[in-house]
Amino acid sequence: MNAHQTQKRPDAAKVLNALAQPLLTVDVQGMVIEVNAAAETFFDMGRAALLRSRLSDLIPPDSPVFGLVADALSNRATVNGYKIDISTPRMGNRNDVDVFVAPLSQTDDAVAIMLQERAIAEKIDRQLTHRSAARSISALGLMLAHEIKNPLSGIRGAAQLLEAGASDEDRALTQLICEETDRIVKLVDRMQSFSVSTPASWESLNIHAVLDHVKRLAQAGFASSRPMIRRYRMCSGLAIS
I need a surface site. Which of 101, 173, 194, 228 has the fewest CB within 10 A? Predict the structure, then answer.
């Protein structure tokens, strides 16, 4: 790796915080020694409070997670557990999670624990079983919104990290990624209208901005090697091409 590549390497903490999945590092005594931003949200605790906690403070003391941690430490290998209940009196009932535990390569006395909520298909099935069809449609909109936004936040965070060391030409592409992820988030927010009864809101829009955005998308993809010419004319007060 040359010096130029080394300068572009993002900070590890920023990469971890870009992940949508909760991630904790725990030492052999069970103390939490590192967390990412998703873990703060998942456990509804700030970073400082989490770093003062033991793993047994966050999940039930009889949880299979502790066995997975012990296996990962003793075998120096990644171990997984599926559909594990980590509900506690403090956090209340939580959805079952898949747990992935991996020993850290730099040390013999710590592991990284990543939590992944169960597949969206299981959540939808649970809602269909316990709710009426109308309420299930409402829940479906909320679940889809949550599941789609999680990876989008990771994509946007990664694009922002790349932008810091990108050339002017490449920076335009990373900005385009951010703009498109933001646009998808807005579309997802509109999906949530299935679950609320608030009336739709309307606002004016500059059609030139929309057309310019479409042009940039085309030039970044299928029309990258083709010349594009814009011609506008007025039609009923709207500019179209």
Answer: 228
For 126-183, how does the pLDDT look when each residue is reduced to its tens digit (9 = 90+)?
666 655 555 556 666 666 676 777 777 777 777 777 777 777 777 777 888 888 888 8
Rounded CA Rg of the chain: 23
Q: Please, is 222 exposed, middle or buried when counting C-beta atoms within 10 Å of its C-beta (0-12, 13-18, 19+)?
A: exposed
Q: Do 108 and 91 form a contact (C-beta atoms < 8 A)?
A: no
Cα separation, 151 vs 103, in Å, equals 25
Nearest to 115 by CA among 65, 165, 57, 181: 65
Angle in degrees, CA 187, 188, 191, rounded to 5: 95
